[in-house]
Amino acid sequence: xxxxxxxxxxxxxxxxxxxxxxxxxxxxxxxxxxxxxxxxxxxxxxxxxxxxxxxxxxxxxxxxxxxxxxxxxxxxxxxxxxxxxxxxxxxxxxxxxxxxxxxxxxxxxxxxxxxxxxxxxxxxxxxxxxxxxxxxxxxxxxxxxxxxxxxxxxxxxxxxxxxxxxxxxxxxxxxxxxxxxxxxxxxxxxxxxxxxxxxxxxxxxxxxxxxxxxxxxxxxxxxxxxxxxxxxxxxxxxxxxxxxxxxxxxxxxxxxxxxxxxxxxxxxxxxxxxxxxxxxxxxxx
Amino acid sequence: xxxxxxxxxxxxxxxxxxxxxxxxxxxxxxxxxxxxxxxxxxxxxxxxxxxxxxxxxxxxxxxxxxxxxxxxxxxxxxxxxxxxxxxxxxxxxxxxxxxxxxxxxxxxxxxxxxxxxxxxxxxxxxxxxxxxxxxxxxxxxxxxxxxxxxxxxxxxxxxxxxxxxxxxxxxxxxxxxxxxxxxxxxxxxxxxxxxxxxxxxxxxxxxxxxxxxxxxxxxxxxxxxxxxxxxxxxxxxxxxxxxxxxxxxxxxxxxxxxxxxxxxxxxxxxxxxxxxxxxxxxxxxxxxxxxxxxxxxxxxxxxxxxxxxxxxxxxxxxxxxxxxxxxxxxx
Lengths: 285, 331
Prior knowledge:
- Chain A is an all-alpha fold.
- Chain A is 75% helix and 3% strand.
- Chain A contains eleven helices and two strands; from the N terminus they run ααααββααααααα.
- In chain A, helix 1 packs antiparallel against helix 10 (236-253), helix 2 (40-58) runs parallel beside helix 4 and helix 2 (40-58) packs across helix 8.
- The chains are: A mainly alpha, B mainly alpha.
């Protein structure tokens, strides 16, 4: 039993880091543009599908890890220029409905091109490492390390680079930032692309673990929203902590009850947290 | 605006209402079996979307989890008819009661949150319900659902067989009409107007002295109960229910119909459901593939270009025209 729990904790940490990658994209977009992006799960799906095609055509798995975020950043730019830019400053209701429309368009496009049949990518690192109570797939360890690396680079980027500074300044005070000569619109576009790229990268990482289907974004977007509101919209570090906590709780619960009930327990945890702290764990309001 | 203009426009309004009512009363005898079924379905979906309009269009809160109420209403009906006592009326009351109790409990929690938290919270709660319904197969039948045999409809001393689709149609139309009237009267009452004041300016409504948390809960409960009533109509029409009614796609449809028809108008949800359900049905098989894409484009276009929807834009246009025809109005 103890071994099972430990391996579930490790699984939870691995998924938690991948989920954090996706959720940070969501929370950055919200924190910057005040847009509740319901289509974020669809971006994750597109990321996985792109990595599938990249893998199938080029055969290179490392290649697919590069192509997915790049393609998704471009897609993000297109979405930003055609719709999101008109939604800026509108009430949250409007932004949700617009991104909901985007969700419809993206998901059906994937369905029409990629098809409804789940396909899988072969495990790119087919080795196991010895671990308490059996072996643990090396690829998952790689996912965890890689996600953590990306998240820390991202935090460093936001803290130390000029663009990061611009991003934080725009978030703090939009008008002053504009007066200081920061290209606010460009920052918005950049953040939306960055968020989309993170969703795409998450999809590419998850693709070999779970199979690639056009509905794979449904469950991840729910998890990402749980994490983001539990952390408090807009908080990057809070999102990281919350996704680790949620995934470990779900993972450990799955050792005792069936997986669906485990998910319900995760959601119930969020309800309890929000009931005690309506602004989220790390939220300021 | 002169009183003459007002009476004139309300006279046209009444003529439209009476015209639609006559059409709806005659329709089942004119239409074939299939279009009649679609029309019955449209009434149910319209009633469901009306529930959404109460919380979204009138109160200004985006509830993305309307499917919970619909599913609970459907299961409330089925459980009562199957396990308690075979009566249609009991089923309808039970469906409403299921949705009502749930909306009071959940509403008490969610109305504490500000708008974006509210949206996400309602999505998550409806997901919990969907997962539970799919998981508790022994109770809900999961995706296979539960089939029921409909009892006869009893009205005072008369008894009607619900095997006739025309009887079903009139029953569903009648229930929807009563529900619509109740909602209409509610928003004509001082309390209903106070609810609309929350949408217009919550801080001001609070300053005037309204207990906005309490009013939001009332609106949330009314919205949930109406959607639950629509849900109870579903097994009445189809003799079956399944856990898929809890899926969030259905919540999205309520948003779609209401936004397209005209949020906050109460008639709009019915119009939106009528237009989109019949459009979906009429599209050729080639177009069916592209239907969700069209829906997405339509949603974005309407919310950005004509956020008041079909009916709202139409009403605004009529009001503008009248204002411009009046001497002293804007030319």
